[in-house]
Structure formats: structure tokens, C-alpha cells
Design brief:
Helices cover 71% and strands 4% of the residues. It is mainly alpha-helical. A three-stranded antiparallel sheet has the order 1-2-3. α4 packs parallel to α14, α5 runs antiparallel to α6 and α11 crosses α12.
């Protein structure tokens, strides 16, 4: 009964299941030290907590894919104007974790990462407005300005506490604007202006006393360590050891040694634990799952006739896959440390739930593609049947 009610791209559903299995195994393996520290050695505690979070995420995905995707347009466009003040509140009243205010405290010892809401709402807002502005998409005042103002507002509110998320969202927005047909000279001018604005921001912050510079020292150290390729931070060194010792086939599930030394092995550096336990083949397999997810999104885009569905699908999918690629690149020391979780794999609540909601929206679009293809097939079959049954012409 449940299988019949699940619609949409079956390959994407399979990817979700496989990533969830990897997530559960890797989180269970990597939270042993955390369990002994906080739960008196109850290693099942975090696994069960993570399993519940995953199940809730799957329920959200299922519900999201049941809703026709066009209804997300007005709903999330309105939610964007809620997320912007929430981002501002987070900067002022958010919990201070590692010199960054990224989450708002909630009752029952829960937290809410407002940037996750802002990312999804901004992408859907851009998809909605790009669809509406197609007739005047090359115009600066009537198309480009309304599109870019919310992007700048969200990016600048996220940037002080989470530079990598701000840059990812800015990149995703640029990709959507380019695909949507915005004049390239406006996009290029925006990139140059963004670089200049960020440089000015850095110069201004560096003039402040050290205790008022926020994350600036962290950004500086991470970039310098990565460029010089020496004096790597402790977490980078441990991640490189995990990757190097994984070999082709890995040490086997639950046999990681670096989980006892690597900070946050269950979130930011979970990919290095996967490589250590499942080898290079396991790491490549996880990488391919995200690549296939993006490919399936492109297939959906080529089949969906509505412009909004196409923009929505490619924007959400590109954002998720870009985040995954950045996380994996950090784990293998290709990029500086960013603190981005691996979508649908890293331990976390808000991140997994919004990832699940995002994939559910993609599945909602693919469900519409399925429905139209089925209707077209039925129409063709009916026409063929009608032709077969047509009476033959009689001639005297």
C-alpha cells in the first residue's frame, strides 16, 4: 500500500535509502567517544537519536512529494520574508558556538539553524520570480534588481557566522540567474561588486580589536594553512590519516581508529570516516550517489514543461550537490575547512530535515513528470486503438 503511494523518480528514492544507510552506519561508528563522554558509554543513544531524525526526515520527504510542487511557490516566497528577520535575530540572540551565532535556541534544549530555512526559501523565491520575469528578464530595473536584492540580504546576514554557507548560496543564486537568462553583464558586475564588498568588509573588521573580529581569525588561519600546505590544523591532519589508512576496501564497518581522534567525525568529517571504513571504493560510491542525484535532476528539468518546476529542481539539486562536494573536498584536503555537513549523511536535526524537504520537492516535480508521461502514453494508446477500430471505407 505504501509502495503504491510513493511516486516520483525511483532512482532518487534509491539514492535516499542508500545515503540513509551509510548515514546510520557511519554515525553509529563515529559517536562512540561522544557516547562515553556524554552518555556513560551508551553507544546506542546517538544511533537511536539519529535514526529517529532520519525517519522524521523521510516522513517530511514523503509528505513534501505528495504536495503538488506549484503550491510551494507562494508558500516559500512568503517564508523568505520570515527567514530574513530570523537571520538577523540569530546574529543578535543566537547561541555562541565556536565564535559564531548560527542557531536560535528553542524549548526542550533544541536549536534551529535559520540559514537552512533561508537557503531553501531563497532558491524557491528565485525560481518563482525568474518564471514570472521571463518576458523582461534582460531588463535591469524590472528583473535584475528584484531578483538580486533578497539574495544580497540573505547572503550578508549569513556571512558573519557562516562564510561557506553564504558563498554556496551566492554561487547557487548566480547559477540560477544564469540559467534563467539574466543578462551576463549584470551577473559579472555582481560578482565583481561582491568581491570588492567582501574585501572592504574584511579590511574594516581587521581594524577592530581582536575580541570583536568574530570569525575573521578562523577564516584567516584556515586559508593560510591550506595554501601553505603546512602546519595543518589538528582536524585536517586526522582526516588525512583516516583517508590514507582506508586503502582500497577500508578497515570494515565500525573499525575506524581516527574516530577517537578526529573532532566532529559524525558531522563535518564523516566522509573521512566513511573512506577509512569502506575504502576508496566506498568513498567513490558515495560521491557517485550525489552525481547521479544531480543527473536525475537534469533529466527532470528536460522533461518538465513548466518553467518554475525546472528552475526549482535545478536550484535545489545544485545546492545540495554543491554542499556535498565541498564537504568531501574538505575531508580529502582539497579545500580549506568549512564546517559544512554532508547532506543526508552527517548527524544533525535541522540540516537533515531541510535536506529531506528539498529532496521531497524534487520528487514532487518528478511525480508531475511521471503523471504527464503516463497521460501521454494513455492518449497515444487510445488513439491507436481508435484507429484500429475505425470502420473501413466501403466503395461501390
Amino acid at each position: 500500500m505504501l509502495a503504491r503511494s510513493i511516486k516520483g523518480d525511483k532512482i532518487i528514492w534509491a539514492i535516499v535509502v542508500l545515503l540513509s544507510v551509510f548515514s546510520l552506519l557511519a554515525v553509529y561508528s563515529s559517536t562512540g567517544t561522544l557516547a562515553y563522554k556524554n552518555q556513560g558509554g551508551n553507544t546506542e543513544y546517538y544511533m537511536m537519536k539519529h535514526l529517529i531524525i532520519l525517519l522524521v526526515g523521510l516522513v517530511l520527504m514523503y509528505l513534501a512529494h505528495k504536495i503538488k510542487y506549484v503550491y510551494y511557490s507562494p508558500l516559500f516566497a512568503a517564508a523568505l520574508w520570515i527567514s530574513i528577520p530570523l537571520l538577523a535575530l540569530t546574529l543578535i540572540f543566537g547561541l555562541d558556538l565556536n565564535d559564531a551565532k548560527r542557531v536560535l535556541p528553542l524549548p526542550f534544549n533544541l536549536t534551529f539553524q535559520t540559514s537552512d530555512l533561508a537557503k531553501l526559501t531563497l532558491i524557491i523565491y528565485l525560481a518563482r520570480l525568474l518564471t514570472k520575469k521571463q518576458d523582461t528578464i534582460k531588463d535591469f530595473r524590472t528583473a535584475f534588481v528584484p531578483l538580486i536584492l533578497p539574495v544580497l540580504a540573505v547572503v550578508f546576514l549569513i556571512m558573519p557566522a557562516n562564510l561557506s554557507t553564504a558563498l554556496m548560496l551566492f554561487t547557487t543564486s548566480l547559477v540560477l540567474l544564469f540559467i534563467g537568462g539574466v543578462d551576463f553583464k549584470y551577473i559579472a558586475a555582481l560578482v565583481v561588486s561582491g568581491i570588492v564588498a567582501f574585501a572592504l568588509f574584511v579590511l574594516i573588521v581587521l581594524q577592530l580589536p581582536e575580541n570583536q573580529q568574530g570569525r575573521m581569525e578562523t577564516w584567516k588561519n584556515r586559508i593560510e594553512n591550506h595554501i601553505k600546505d603546512e602546519g595543518d590544523s589538528y582536524q585536517v591532519e586526522q582526516a588525512k590519516i583516516a583517508v590514507a589508512t582506508g586503502g582500497l576496501l577500508g578497515k570494515g564497518p565500525g573499525n575506524s581508529t581516527q574516530r577517537n581522534f578526529l573532532p566532529h567525525p559524525y558531522s563535518d568529517f564523516i566522509y573521512s570516516i566513511i573512506i577509512e571504513e569502506y575504502g576508496y571504493l566506498g568513498g567513490v560510491f558515495v560521491l557517485l550517489l550525489y552525481v547521479i542525484l544531480l543527473h536525475r535532476a537534469v533529466v527532470i528539468v528536460t522533461k518538465i514543461p513548466q518553467t518554475f518546476g525546472a528552475f526549482l529542481t535545478i536550484g535545489v539539486a545544485f545546492s545540495l550537490v554543491l554542499q556535498a562536494m565541498i564537504n568531501m573536498a574538505v575531508n580529502v584536503d582539497v579545500l580549506p575547512v568549512t564546517g559544512q555537513p554532508l547532506p543526508l549523511v552527517s548527524m544533525g536535526g535541522t540540516s537533515i530535515w531541510f535536506t529531506s524537504l528539498s529532496i521531497g520537492i524534487i520528487l514532487s516535480v518528478s511525480k508531475e513528470v511521471e503523471r504527464k508521461e503516463k497521460n501521454n502514453q494513455q492518449t497515444e494508446t487510445t488513439e491507436i486503438t481508435a484507429d484500429d477500430k475505425a470502420p473501413e471505407a466501403h466503395t461501390d
